[in-house]
Amino acid sequence: MKKMIDLITAEVTDAFTACGYDSVYGRATLSNRPDLCEFQCNGAMAAAKQYKKAPFLIADEVAAKLAENPMFSMAESVKPGFLNLKIEESFLADYVAGMQEDDGRFGCEKTAHPKTILIDYGGPNVAKPLHVGHLRSAIIGESVKRIGRFAGHNMIGDVHLGDWGLQMGLIITELKTRRPGLVYFDEAYAGEYPEDAPFTIAELEEIYPTASKKSKEDEAYKEAAMQATFELQQGRRGYKALLAHILDVSVNDLKRNYENLAVSFELWKGESDAQPYIPDMVQKMKEDGFAYLSDGALVVDVKEDTDTKEIPPCMILKSDGASLYNTTDLATIVWRMRDYHPDEIIYVVDKRQELYFTQVFRCARKTGLVGADTRLTFLGFGTMNGRDGKPFKTREGGVMRLEHLVDGINEEMLKKIMENRKTKENLDIGEEEAGETARVIALAAIKYGDLSNQAGKDYIFDIERFTSFEGNTGPYILYTIVRIKSILGKYHGLGKDENGAVIGAAHSKSEKDLMLVLSQFNAVMETACEETAPHKVCAYIYDLSNAFNTFYHETKIMSEENECVQKSYIRLLTLTRSVLETCIDLLGFSAPERM
To answer: What is the largest CA-CA distance in the chain?
Structure first.
């Protein structure tokens, strides 16, 4: 289906040209004064200069032409030259009914030019628990992936594990200190290594911080860890086997934690997967004359004449020949291009890394790792802060584990549900159902609380506000969906059905307002995908929820005596529920059956 705004613009454009004016002036927009009109066009203001004519005279002519058009119930000229428009109720009803007939898409066409888009999000380090700093990348990346897939693109999510470098050497060294008799440390051993890891995830998560602390206090210990890292990277069998165990134990735990957030990845690749591509990549950069030595390090210049600030060279290898994050990220681009040929790679990372990714992107493009037709996109997100405006911490001042944050919000939601059960006699919800419902609502509270903010902005993580059932929150959106489900359940419970009925012309302003918001769905989804902007989906469903609740409070749906009118209401509610459920799925959460 064509977008409603495009249909309106086409009619307004025809009116401009019929009156002898250029079609460029016919663009319509949503009204910024909904108390006066539903749509507007300010083209007469711009046309006045070209045609040397008062804008209100131009607007008068166009309005007179539009008054003949059955699409509009109002087309009026307002001085100094605005066009105010209202859609005719039956035309709007037909449009919304067409959305309902387009099952699952609701008038939103898939892209005519599908792309392969790879998203780099998550970025956890193995052997370390997820903390609140990992939340935004996971939540934003997952939603961007879902929105892109709904638009028709081939979306591939890659967790991009931190599984290389000194941290691996530290773990190996600490394990050797504790259990030197393990077969992995016997260089003469030539047999098969055990299938089971010599540690649990709990032990692994304790080993790393212990080793890290020791390396800062003991130079010899740090040297041993660096040597272990070097030997691992040179292919020592026992150390590679230990790395495989570390990855297996860590990834299983990470998958469990990400599943609790309804976040998934098509690829579980890490920095270690990029290592085989580094030698050839570096050699080619040298041969092509891009890489050169600077103070012993191998670098590539990435500054451009248009730069207004200094952009340092991109370092490829350190003076000792060791690779860096730059090296790994560039080599990762190599295998991504080779295996998946993406049209675009989106990096969902902290916005404070913008300079770093500017260097990496420019280096990749300059050295030919990607062609001119491949986009490299930096989607930088802001900081999640506590109510004090500072980065979110535990009460003790440390970085909070992500699962502890989720558990805390689950508990808060469960408490509210149990209190609600006491105040509502008809809410016969058991403790098991209450616990599951709390988890569903808590996830909505977390995700909506994050995604409703523009990605690049910092925001305050306010548990009290996020878990509220009122205002611009996830629980409010879910409560709206559950309210609709309840009405539909009561209607069908009476043995009624709306088969054969269609959505009819609105009977009230609130009903028409609900239809108007519904009609914006395909335009919102198109914009959210093009701009990688999940917050626009959040803004839309908040508007839609408000429009529905106003309609609900002003309309006697279940007591409506006219059967045809009631069926039209039920059809409208069914569409509203479906659109809301589709949107929250794209944001990465779902609604319970009751709350």
So the answer is: 94
Tell me the two tokens of residue 51. Answer: 């045609």
- Give the 3-state secondary structure of residue 467: coil
For 232-240, the CB contacts below 8 A with 24+ separation are 232/168, 232/169, 232/172, 233/164, 233/275, 236/187, 237/189, 237/193, 238/183, 238/184, 238/185, 238/186, 238/187, 238/189, 238/193, 239/172, 239/184
- The label of the residue with tokens 């917050």 reads 535
CA distances 497 to 300, 494, 556, 567, 568, Å, are 69, 9, 18, 8, 11
Q: How many residues does the chain have?
A: 595
Domain definitions of the chain by residue range: 4-87, 166-260
Using CA of residue 418, residue 422, residue 427, residue 432, what is the dihedral sign? positive
Taking residues 485-511, report their average pLDDT: 95
Question: Residue for token digits 């079609």?
Answer: 23
Q: CA-CA distance, 45 to 78, in Å (whole number)?
A: 11
Burial 134-156 (b: 16+ CB within 10 A, else e): bbbbbbbbbbbbbbbbbbbbebb
Among 103, 220, 70, 246, CA closest to 164:
246
**Residue in the block written with tokens 């993580």:** 461
Q: Is the pTM of this model over 0.70?
A: yes
pLDDT band at 504; cut points 50, 70, 90: very high
CB 135, CB 406: distance < 8 Å = no
Query: What average pLDDT does the segment 251-276 reach?
Result: 94
Q: Which of 379, 375, 367 is nearest to 342 (CA)?
A: 375
**Distance of alpha carbon 351 from alpha carbon 362, whole angstroms:** 17
Cα–Cα distance measured from residue 560 to residue 567, given in angstroms and rounded to the nearest whole number: 9
In this prediction, residue 417 carries a pLDDT of: 85
Residues in contact with 109: Cβ distance below 8 Å, sequence separation at least 6, in sequence order: 1, 522
Are 280 and 157 spatial neighbours (Cβ–Cβ below 8 Å)? no
Collapsing DSSP to helix, strand or coil, 83 comes out as strand
CATH architecture of residue range(s) 4-87:
2-Layer Sandwich (3.30)
Q: For residue range 53-108, what is the model confidence (pLDDT) as tens digits?
A: 999 999 999 999 999 999 999 999 999 999 999 999 999 999 999 999 998 999 99
β-strand pairing of 344-350 with 375-381: parallel
Residues 562, 569: Cα–Cα separation, whole Å = 11
Name the CA radius of gyration of the chain, rounded.
Answer: 29
How far are the Cα atoms of 168, 254, 307, 324, 352 from residue 209, in angstroms, in the given order?
12, 18, 41, 22, 25
Q: Which residue has the tokens 């709007």?
A: 92
- Alpha-carbon distances, residue 37 vs 32, 135, 534 (angstroms): 9, 41, 28
Tokens of 562: 């006219």
Neighbours of 109 (CB within 10 A): 15
Return the closest-CA partner of residue 265 out of 137, 382, 100: 137
